[in-house]
Every structure is written in structure tokens, then in C-alpha cells.
Design a protein that fits this description.
The protein is an alpha+beta fold. It contains 22 helices and 61 strands. The strands form 16 sheets. A five-stranded parallel sheet has the order 4-5-6-3-7, with helices on both faces. A four-stranded antiparallel sheet has the order 12-33-32-31. Strands 13-14-15-16 form a four-stranded antiparallel sheet, with no helix packed on it. It is globular and about 100 Å long.
């Protein structure tokens, strides 16, 4: 027995007659005998219990069968960078050795963990207990008891273990069991008298949903006890790296399956496998999922010819499943034919083969998948005993005789005792997706005459059965079908259209549009009047100028959807989710905010040393009073501390925060220090001085163990509050980080800056989780005490409220949407994007089609440029070197060395034979793209190079510097041509005809002659603050973006004046580029790369005011494609007569429609 769990004392009964000593002695003797006998019995029972545990250990070790195991890597969460990995098992072992209670981790990993724990098991240690949750009836109650009883432990043994032993509970398949409960809380683990456990739970990430931590985090015993931040830890199993894939392939070839999945499969070497995996486009990415790698290794030799051009082969996830299933059924049909069957079974098999065995087997599994979702609530494990359940729906699939038996035994269904399930949850989802879309490829196995033209199942009926929005994997399978079959896309669009006149089609319509949005189908300008799509998921969809008049949009999720100019007149919008709350108007630039600890008040500091107080129930202002920008609520008495000149800081205080107990205060100031103070005495306790710039904001974690500080050097720093040691430096912001705060549960940190919105971080690992974009010039972000929303302030005088969860989790972003930098080629037809991990992708602007550039290089990319013909990409890195890549092969062509500081700008010459780079080392270097040779160094710059452009002829380069100087150089000789008179500009370019050099600044646009360098009056009418701009190829239009996200268009076709023709608030752009439509030279498109980051493609349209009248046109921009960061846009929407919209959503709509 563990010393940590003392046995209850035995009660002793004494007589009341003190003179009866003999009786007392006799009683004592009997009691001693009784105690000795009970102790001996207890020891025997414990020895018997330990024998049973050793038997369980032997059984589980014997059942363990993992032929190949590659140690998995993990990252802190879904959005963490792919190069920030750690060994998963090391983290799990660290968790099990700690005092923490729960971790969220998949099947093979869990079994490996169990095997490891049983191997090391010694008497008295924690007992490892593996639980397959889908097989447990009601896991919310008596979970451990049920599993132990399944392993034949007696009630007395279970009771003994509950009182005296500790467990490591490994819960597998949380998602498959369709659970929504907190297992830890529901079973009262670690409460007095209850099971003492550490819990490891596995769940597929796409099933976590919003605010998932509440379903896993152990809850405190009483309301006054705080949950420790590290009581709950999570890890996301990382995809396989190329090295891990090659390691797995090597083990697979060395240790082939005892029974091959496929007969007549060619034997491949490691080199042959890797050749196919690497050279078939996108296949290496696909098989980075370990289960898909297994499918690929089994299927590839049978489906890929060695002589075929691998670059022409396309294999998607669903195609991999198609190939695997067909090969699996082919093999199992042969095995049945070679098996000793009865005469009746032989006849039944002959009939199946004669008609079409493949068809009937797939139909059997489709029907089973349908039954599981409809009749079994999606629970993948079905228990069946024939005599008890032969009159239920189950008999059609689990009857032990006839065709049912043959089809089941050849299928991807496995049996364990009386339990049946597909070999992997994804096969359940795959076969259900085939009930909606079936490729009808059965003729490949037909021995008889199979009619491929037989009527297909009714699509509307199949789409109506269940709400597949709740099944992301089914949607993913169907999305891949849409990408491969335009007919299927038209059928889904038809289902949406049918809902206009038939209410019975509403569920089918909602499912259909959710699939299409997942694919990335653009609905801009579509006539969707009267459609019925209740419960649809439109997150991140493009519905610019779409007409939803009279539509049923009940319970639709529109988070991050682009709904600019959409018409919602008379639409039903009960329960619609926008993912945001209406903002508060502070009327002056807002600089800071803080919630009271009871969540009833929000205090906002504004310019002019004033503080506004809001009621969070109504969001109405209560009072305003004088005060500075640094403020914090005390957790003790709800008083507000306003930072000023705390004694010890040598410069003004920028931020203050109380410790959770209120006995300490931390402050940050312009003197580049954060200081802690005793609130009772006012004395300074310590200095956190390792800052390189002013400290804007400080925050304590809810448990008081960490302090976060943000500073003007673009980063956030996490400190150990006890020792003052730095724990993490969080990088990723561009510009001054103005605010930092912890979430109420301590798991997340929110920080914001003016340039790149709000960042959410994991407080334990320091990894980036997500970003909230759509607002510009953010100054502060704070979690509400209830953790259900975030308030952010901005210099435009607004306080925006973001719903927690809705904006943070977005599993519907497509591959490659998340990028950190990008560039547009000269004609705008293609763009290149890159993630922080170095993953490049080239996109066709109008179609959205993309191609990976696999560069096999992981030094962080800071800037990039795409050559005019899109065959080369130049990238700069944190090592100050440039690298030139071939976009077709990913081969590194040249490493260009010479710069000694950050390379801020890269640009190709119009012919692509040169690339120029501008650096903070005050030089511009010109390189030959064919040889990599340095051709010129342009050195006479007065400051860091902040802008760089070639002339249309390629003979000149204009370079601007941080000191507002601008120089024009000869690109061939490196000689300076002239300096521009009165230079001022943040962005520069030559006009497309080469006659002018144009700059943009806070004073508007200016122009110079490209021949003389003299100032010209052209464009001087444009005086708006322009961050970036571009002139159209025909020299007739200029588009510009302001720092507040205003996109502006001018007609500049006249030499005498400029006319503004369009203005709309979108997002702040750092690149604007025009392009022509290849099919229609008169059609212009505008491309904007925004700080999201995202790419928006806009179509320029002109509508005549009166038909047949040519004098005055009305121009507009319509969003036709969006790649990257998604933001909610409700600008200029119509909502007359809208029904059911909540007051908060109506207020949000009214606010945002006027932007």
C-alpha cells in the first residue's frame, strides 16, 4: 500500500466498568486476534489483487502489436508554427511525473504509451488503464469501474483500488464517442473518496469546437479555489516531417505486413516509394498524416505505374481512400473465394461476384455508415448479439450468415467480441460521403454487365439525412469531390436554388452551401434571394454584393465572412453568428481598457487623459472622469489604479496591473523597465529590466506565477513572477506592441499592435495560437472575466468586442491560406505566398489554383518577390542573405550574400534578368538572376532603404530611404542619375508609360519627371494619406490604401485634374497592384495584399447612370477572390425588414454597414 494513502483506523470498543479488568483484557485479546486476522486477510486480498493486475499487464503487453512506430512530434496547438515542435512522449512523461491532472493527446500513440507504462509497472505504482471510450456505456459515470469490471476484477478489488491505488487513465476516442462532457468533472476524479487519477485524452482536432478547454480542464473542488494554469496541458500531434516519412517507409519495407493488404502488389524499395511520394504533386503533404501514409504505402504500388510521368498524376485524400478501398475489397473477395465456405455461402458469393462484388460491398458499407449516423447517433462502435438484437436495424449488417456475413467479412469493418466498427473512424465518414457523391467506379471489378448509367441516389434525399456541418471530415471528402467534378458542384448549387421554392430542401441546401464555402467557391454578386440554409457554415466565405433578400439564414455561422454590399432585406436571421459584438464609440482615440473583476464594468482610457466607464450589460456609458492611459482594477475592492509617476521609474508609467491577490502591483514605463511593488508599503520589490525599448503594458497571470510585458521592440516577454527570470519572448508583431493581457483561465495571452491586429498566444509554450484582424491601429486588448469575449481599443475611437471561441477556432481555412508574406508578379496574374516556416505557394489570381514550391529550407523568410514570368522567387531571410529559387522544382539556384542588415525590399527587373535588394545597411545591390553575380552596389543613401522600384524599361531604379531622400540610379552601370527634388514618400513607382516617378505619403501623391527629376503638378489634387498605391496599366486610374484601411480610386486620365471615383473601408494594405484580364483586355482587376495577411482580388466595374448615356459612369469594386486572413465585412449591407436578428447583432450590423 502506498504511504500516501493511509488506511482508516480500526474502531476499538471499550467497556464502561473500570473494575472489570479481566473482561477488558479478554476483549482486548479478541480484538488483537480480530485485527491480526483481518490484516492477514487484507494482505491475501492485496496479493490476489496484485496477481490480477499482473495478469492484466501480461494480457495487455501480449495484445500490443505495433509493427512500426515512429516517435511522434507535437506542437502546442493547431496554429503553432510547424517548426516549433517537441517530442510528444517526452511531454507526456513530464506530465505524468508532475502534479498535474489532465492532458489532451491518438490511438497508436495511446497504445504505445500504455505499453510503455505496463512495461515499467511495479507493485504500488500508478496503474495504467487504457479505455476505448466508444465502447463504454455512459462514460460520464463510473468510467473506471466499468473498465475494471470488463477486465474481470471483483467488486471488492475495485473498491480496494478506488481507496488505495492511483491510476493513469488513457482515454482514447473522445471524438468517436460523440462526448460533450468533462470526463474529469463528471466522474469526480481526485475528489475526497473518489478515484485518484491522471488523465490522458485523445481527440481529433476538428471535433474540438469552440471553447473546448472547458470539456477537459479539471475543475476546482470549490468555487473559491483557483485552477492552476498547468493542471491542464494540451499537445497537437504534428504531421510527419519528410525525415519521419522516410523513416517510416524504411521500417515498412524492412517489416512488411504478415498478411498483405493487397495481393499481387509490386515490391518497392524505399527509393521507389520516396520517388513517388516526392514527385507526385502534393502527395508528400498529404501523407504527412500518418494514417494516410499507411494507406498510400499499401495502395501506391498497385495504382501507380513506374513508367508514368509522375508530375501529371493527381492524388487527393479522397482518391487515396477510393484506391485503398477498391484494392482492399479486391483482395478480400479473392480470400473469400479461396476459403472453405459452405455450399450456401459459396452460392451467395457466386451471385455477388456475378452481379458486381465491388458494387455490393461498397453499398453494404455505405448503408452501414448511414445507419450508424441515423440509428446509432454517430457512435462508431456497434454492439450486436444475434439472439437479443435480431429484430433491430443491426441485423442487416451483423447477421452471422448469408450475404450479410460475406459482405461484412470482406469490408473495412472489424470485430472485437460483440463490438463492430470500421477499421478507422475516417472510413465511416468516407462511406457516408459516398452516399452523397459516388464516383460510380464499380465497373473496374465487374464480372457481369454492370450498368454504370443506373439511376444514382437522390442527391437531395442524401443531403437531407443529417447535418454534415457537424462532421468536418465528411465535408472535407465532399469538398475534394467538388474540386474534381464540376457536375457535382452544379448539383450542389442546384440544391441551394431548389430551396427557394421548397422548404423541405432546407437541410440539403445548408449542407450544400457549407461544402461549397469549404472548397472556396466564390458567391460574390450571386442571386441567393429566398434560399433556405438554416444552420449553414459560411465562415470565411465571399458573399460580396450577394442578394440574400427573403432568405432563411437562421443559425447560420457568418464569422469572418465577407458580406460587403450584401442584401439581407426581409431575411430571417434568428440565431445568426457574426463572431463579433457591436463596438463602443469612445469618440476620441482609445488607448487602453480594463474590465472590473466581476465583469460588470469596462473602463476605457482615451486621448486627453480621460476615462470612460461602461456598463457591460447594456454597453451604455455610465460616467467619465480624468485619468491617464495606464489603468488597472484591483481584485480586492474593484478600485481603479491609474498609473502616473510611480517613484522609481525615471520616465512616465505606461501600464500597471495588480497581482491576483491584490497585494502586489507591476508597472511598466518609458524607461524600458517593469517594476513590482508591495501594495501595503508602496516599496519596490524588483525590476524586470531586460527590455530593449519602452514597456507599454504589463499583466499578471491569474495564478500569479507569470508576468507578461509588451514593449516597443515588437515583442512580448514572459517572466517568472517569483524569480524575475525571463521564460519566453513572443515575436511576430510588426511595430510597437501596445498591450498584453492573460485570459481568465491563464491559458492564453492576447497582445496587439497597430500593424497586425491582435495575437493570441499559448501562455505555457509561448506559441502563437491565432490572430484577430479587421481593425487597424489597435491600442489595447483585454479578456472579459467570463472569458466569452475580448475588448480591443483603437485610435479610430472604437472599442471592438470579439466573441471568444468563434473567432479563435477556424478549421475551415484551406491549405496555404495562412501566410506571413507574399508578392504579386508584374502583370498581376500570379502571386506567391509564404508561411513563417518557409512554405511557398504560387496562386493563379483569378482561378485560385495553386502549386506548392517545396524548398526544403527552414530559415525564416522576411521578404519575397516573384519574377515577371513567375519562374523565379527571390527571398530574404533573417540571416540577411537572399536566395533565388526555381518555382517549378523548388531548387535553390543561388545564395546572394553581401548585405549586413535586414533586407527590406526585393524587386525584379521587368525582363527578369536582374533582381535588386534594398537593405537597412543603406545599400541597394543589383544581382544577375542567371548567374547570381553581383552587378552593382548603390551606396550613397542617407538612411535605411525603405522603397525600391524599377522603371518599365528596366534601365532605372528609384530607391527611397528612411530620411525621406530618394535617388534614381542606372540599373546597368550603378551610376546615380539624379536625386529627386523635395522628396517625401512611403511608397514609390514609375508610371506604366515611364514618364513619371510617383510617391505616396501622408500628404497625398506627388510626381516627378523621370527624365529630369523635377517636381510636376500632375496628381497634386490627391491629398489623402496614402500608404501604398498603384497606377493602372492604361495610366487612367490610381488606387491607394490609407493607414486606416480606406481603399480609394481616382480617375487620372486627364492631365489637368484627378477625380475620385470610389472609396470603401476594407483593410490596411501593404501592396496594391493592377492587372488586366487575359480574355478581356478592357477588364481591370485590383489586387490588395493586406496586413491580415490576405490577398483580395477586386473587379473594377462601371455602371452607367442612365442607359445609353456615356457622360458620367459610376464605378465600383466587387471582391471576386480572397486568399488568406478572413475578416468579417458588413460594409454597405442592406437590412430593411430583417427578421429575428438579436439586438446586439442588429447594432453590430448598423455600425459596420456605415463603414
Amino acid at each position: 500500500m502506498d504511504n500516501d494513502f493511509p488506511t482508516p483506523p480500526h474502531a476499538t470498543k471499550y467497556g464502561n466498568d473500570l473494575n472489570n479488568n479481566q473482561n477488558i483484557d479478554l476483549i482486548d485479546s479478541f480484538q488483537d486476534l480480530e485485527i491480526n486476522l483481518k490484516t492477514e486477510v487484507d494482505m491475501q486480498e492485496k496479493l490476489h489483487l496484485e496477481d490480477e493486475l499482473q495478469n492484466l499487464r501480461t494480457q495487455r503487453l501480449k495484445e500490443f502489436d505495433q509493427r512500426i512506430y515512429i516517435a511522434p512530434m507535437a506542437k502546442a496547438n493547431l496554429q503553432a508554427r510547424d517548426d516549433a515542435l517537441f517530442p510528444l512522449m517526452d511531454r507526456v512523461q513530464e506530465f505524468l511525473a508532475s502534479e498535474r491532472e489532465e492532458a489532451a493527446s491518438r490511438h497508436s500513440i495511446n497504445r504505445h504509451l500504455e505499453h510503455h507504462l505496463w512495461t515499467d509497472y511495479k507493485q504500488g505504482r500508478h496503474i495504467p488503464l487504457y479505455v476505448n471510450l466508444p465502447t463504454i456505456n455512459d462514460p460520464a459515470h463510473d468510467l473506471i469501474e466499468k473498465e475494471l469490471q470488463y477486465h474481470n476484477f471483483s467488486e471488492e478489488q475495485v473498491r480496494e483500488m478506488k481507496l488505495c491505488r492511483q491510476f493513469i487513465l488513457i482515454c482514447d476516442g473522445y471524438d468517436e464517442s460523440q462526448l460533450k462532457i468533462n470526463i474529469h468533472t463528471a466522474n469526480q476524479f481526485n475528489r475526497p473518496g473518489q478515484w485518484r487519477v491522471k488523465v490522458v485524452i485523445s481527440c481529433r482536432t476538428q471535433y474540438l469546437g469552440q471553447d473546448y478547454r472547458s470539456r477537459f480542464q479539471p475543475q476546482p473542488v470549490d468555487l473559491y479555489q483557483r485552477t492552476k494554469v498547468d493542471d491542464f496541458q494540451e499537445a497537437v500531434v504534428a504531421v510527419f516531417s519528410r525525415a519521419q516519412i522516410e523513416q517510416y517507409v524504411d521500417e515498412y519495407v524492412k517489416n512488411p505486413p504478415a498478411v498483405d493488404t493487397f495481393l499481387d502488389k509490386p515490391t518497392w524499395s524505399v527509393e521507389e516509394y520516396m520517388d513517388k511520394l516526392v514527385n507526385i504533386p502534393s502527395l508528400l503533404d498529404l501523407v504527412s498524416n500518418p494514417f494516410l501514409l499507411i494507406l498510400a504505402l499499401e495502395a501506391l504500388p498497385s495504382v501507380v505505374s513506374s513508367t508514368k510521368d509522375l508530375s501529371t498524376i493527381t492524388i487527393s485524400r479522397v482518391q487515396l481512400y477510393d484506391s485503398f478501398v477498391k484494392q482492399w475489397l479486391k483482395v478480400n473477395r479473392r480470400r473469400l473465394e479461396d476459403s472453405p465456405l459452405s455450399d450456401d455461402e459459396r452460392l451467395e458469393l457466386h451471385l455477388l461476384v456475378e452481379d458486381n462484388f465491388l458494387y455490393h460491398s461498397i453499398k453494404f458499407q455505405k448503408d452501414l455508415a448511414t445507419a450508424i449516423f441515423i440509428d446509432h447517433a454517430g457512435n462508431p462502435v456497434v454492439k450486436y448479439t444475434h439472439f437479443r438484437e435480431k429484430n433491430t436495424w443491426k441485423v442487416a449488417f451483423f447477421c452471422p450468415e448469408g450475404q450479410v456475413k460475406l459482405l461484412r467479412e470482406s469490408s473495412t469493418v472489424m470485430r472485437s467480441g460483440a463490438s463492430f466498427r470500421f477499421i478507422h473512424r475516417s472510413f465511416l465518414e468516407y462511406f457516408y460521403s459516398r452516399t452523397i457523391y459516388d464516383p460510380l467506379d464499380y465497373d473496374l471489378e465487374a464480372d457481369g454487365d454492370f450498368d454504370e448509367s443506373e439511376p444514382s441516389p437522390d442527391l437531395i434525399t442524401c443531403l437531407t439525412r443529417i447535418n454534415i456541418v457537424k462532421e468536418p471530415s465528411i465535408i472535407q471528402f465532399l469538398a475534394e469531390r467538388v474540386e474534381a467534378d464540376a457536375t457535382f458542384m452544379r448539383q450542389l448549387l442546384g440544391a441551394i436554388n431548389d430551396s427557394k421554392t421548397d422548404a423541405n430542401v432546407a437541410q440539403a441546401s445548408a449542407n450544400a452551401i457549407s461544402v461549397l464555402v469549404k472548397v472556396g467557391v466564390q458567391f460574390s454578386g450571386k442571386e441567393l434571394r429566398g434560399i433556405k440554409i438554416p444552420g449553414a457554415d459560411l465562415r470565411g466565405g465571399n458573399f460580396d454584393s450577394a442578394d440574400f433578400e427573403g432568405a432563411d439564414l437562421s443559425d447560420v455561422n457568418m464569422s469572418r465572412a465577407w458580406l460587403r454590399l450584401a442584401n439581407f432585406s426581409n431575411a430571417r436571421m434568428t440565431g445568426v453568428q457574426f463572431g463579433e459584438l457591436p463596438c463602443l464609440n469612445a469618440f476620441l482615440p482609445a488607448t487602453n481598457c480594463a474590465f472590473s473583476f466581476d465583469g460588470k464594468l469596462l473602463v476605457v482610457a482615451v486621448m486627453g487623459d480621460a476615462v470612460n466607464v461602461y456598463d457591460t450589460d447594456t454597453w451604455d456609458p455610465i460616467i467619465a472622469y480624468p485619468g491617464g492611459p495606464a489603468l488597472a482594477f484591483s481584485p480586492v475592492n474593484n478600485e481603479v489604479a491609474i498609473g502616473g509617476a510611480l517613484k522609481g521609474h525615471t520616465k512616465p508609467v505606461k501600464g500597471v496591473a495588480f497581482s491576483p491577490t491584490g497585494d502586489q502591483l507591476v508597472s511598466g514605463g518609458e524607461d524600458a523597465t517593469a517594476r513590482t511593488w508591495d501594495m501595503q508599503t508602496g516599496e519596490a520589490l524588483g525590476i524586470l529590466g531586460d527590455h530593449t525599448d519602452l514597456v507599454n503594458s504589463v499583466a499578471y497571470s491569474p495564478d500569479g506565477s507569470q508576468i507578461a510585458s509588451s514593449n516597443g521592440n515588437n515583442d512580448v516577454r514572459l517572466w517568472d513572477a517569483r524569480t524575475g527570470n525571463i521564460k519566453h519572448i513572443l515575436t511576430g508583431h510588426y511595430g510597437n506592441v501596445s498591450s498584453v493581457t492573460f485570459s481568465p483561465d491563464g491559458h492564453q495571452i492576447a497582445s496587439c499592435s497597430k500593424m497586425k491586429g491582435i495575437h493570441l498566444w499559448n501562455s505555457l509554450s509561448g506559441e502563437l495560437i491565432s490572430m484577430l484582424t479587421g481593425n487597424v491601429h489597435n491600442t489595447c486588448a483585454k479578456f472579459s472575466p467570463t472569458n466569452d469575449y475580448i475588448a480591443s481599443t483603437a485610435l479610430d475611437g472604437t472599442v471592438r468586442l470579439w466573441r471568444a471561441g468563434a473567432e479563435f477556432e477556424d478549421f475551415f481555412l484551406r491549405l496555404g491560406d495562412n501566410f506571413s508574406c507574399g508578392d504579386v508578379c508584374a502583370d498581376g496574374s500570379r502571386i506567391v505566398t509564404c508561411t513563417e516556416e518557409g512554405r511557398m505557394r504560387i496562386w493563379e489570381t483569378l482561378t485560385g489554383k495553386s502549386q506548392d514550391i517545396r524548398i526544403g529550407f527552414n530559415i525564416r523568410i522576411t521578404e519575397m518577390a516573384l519574377s515577371p514570368c513567375s519562374t523565379r522567387v527571390a527571398s530574404s531571410h533573417i540571416d540577411h542573405k537572399l536566395r533565388l529559387w526555381d518555382t517549378q522544382t523548388g531548387v535553390l539556384l543561388h545564395v546572394l550574400e553581401g548585405h549586413t542588415n535586414t533586407v527590406a525590399f526585393i524587386t525584379f527587373s521587368p525582363s527578369g534578368d536582374q533582381v535588386a535588394s534594398g537593405s537597412f545597411d543603406r545599400t541597394v545591390r543589383v544581382w544577375n538572376t542567371l548567374t547570381g553575380r553581383l552587378e552593382a552596389i548603390l551606396e550613397a543613401h542617407s538612411g535605411e532603404v525603405h522603397g525600391l522600384k524599377y522603371s518599365p524599361s528596366g534601365h532605372q531604379i528609384v530607391a527611397s530611404t528612411s530620411g525621406n531622400a530618394a535617388h534614381v540610379w542606372c540599373s546597368r552601370t550603378g551610376a546615380k542619375v539624379f536625386d529627386l527634388a523635395e522628396p517625401a514618400g512611403r511608397s514609390w513607382m514609375f508610371s506604366p508609360d515611364g514618364r513619371y516617378i510617383i510617391s505616396a505619403s501622408e500628404k497625398g501623391l506627388r510626381s516627378w519627371s523621370s527624365l529630369t527629376g523635377l517636381r510636376m503638378e500632375r496628381l497634386s489634387d490627391i491629398q489623402d494619406f496614402c500608404m501604398v498605391f498603384s497606377m493602372s496599366p492604361d495610366n487612367n486610374f490610381i488606387a491607394a490604401s490609407s493607414p486606416y484601411g480606406m481603399l480609394m480610386l481616382w480617375d487620372v486620365s486627364s492631365d489637368c485634374c484627378c477625380t475620385e471615383i470610389y472609396r470603401v473601408r476594407t483593410e490596411m494594405a501593404y501592396e496594391v497592384r493592377w492587372m488586366r484580364d487575359v480574355a478581356d483586355a478592357d477588364q481591370l482587376y485590383l489586387l490588395t495584399l493586406t496586413s491580415g495577411p490576405s490577398l483580395r482580388v477586386w473587379r473594377l466595374s462601371k455602371q452607367e447612370e442612365e442607359e445609353g448615356k456615356e457622360s458620367q459612369g459610376v464605378y465600383s469594386l466587387q471582391l471576386v477572390r480572397s486568399i488568406g486572413g478572413r475578416v468579417l465585412s458588413l460594409a454597405q449591407t442592406k437590412a430593411d425588414g430583417v427578421v429575428g436578428l438579436s439586438p446586439a447583432n442588429l447594432r453590430l450590423l448598423n455600425q459596420r454597414r456605415n463603414e
